[in-house]
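The protein record passed on below.

***
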Amino acid sequence: MFKYLFFIIIVILPTFVRAGDYTSGNVDFVKIKNTWIDRHNNERKSLWLNPYTWSLNLDKTAQKWADYLLSQNKTTHKRLAKDWYYNYVSMQNWFNNLWVYFVGSSTNFSESIGWWYQKCKKADCTDSLTKSIKSTFNFFMSEKWKWYRPHYNGIIMKKFNLIWLGVAVGSWKYYLVTHYGTKLVSSP
């Protein structure tokens, strides 16, 4: 007589929703993105700068990086393992591999990354995520009067006029990626 032991192994993977498809889970990502760009444009307006414009078609770069950060559970700008923390050339090549080409030869894009804790079990977590994401925006804004202010500079860079946002939400935190840029030569 043989006895069989059955082991049921339950693997709990971090569940996540992606902003890129705009209908995932229980979050209205269009509302999240509109709130994000409104916060940026309010600051730009106070400085007499042109508002950012947002394109659903180009959010894929920011979303792709946010998804990567969530899958790795880390925050980094490094596209290649050998890169310094923020290697502009590697990032530009990464954009180009996604068929995104910017006008100009000098600094024509920037990337800001944020993350924070987020846990919501409600039927609609849009407001909860909006409040959490506000902490990231407040962090960016906290650099306003500092000498080194890379995130705040992304918000107010005069020559940038395009903005993309990617948000990947895990079971207990989110990763947010904002790409800022100049005009595009071509895009997908």
Remarks:
- The helical segments are 29-46, 60-72, 88-97, 126-141, 150-156.
- The radius of gyration is 19 Å.
- The first helix runs from residue 29 to 46.
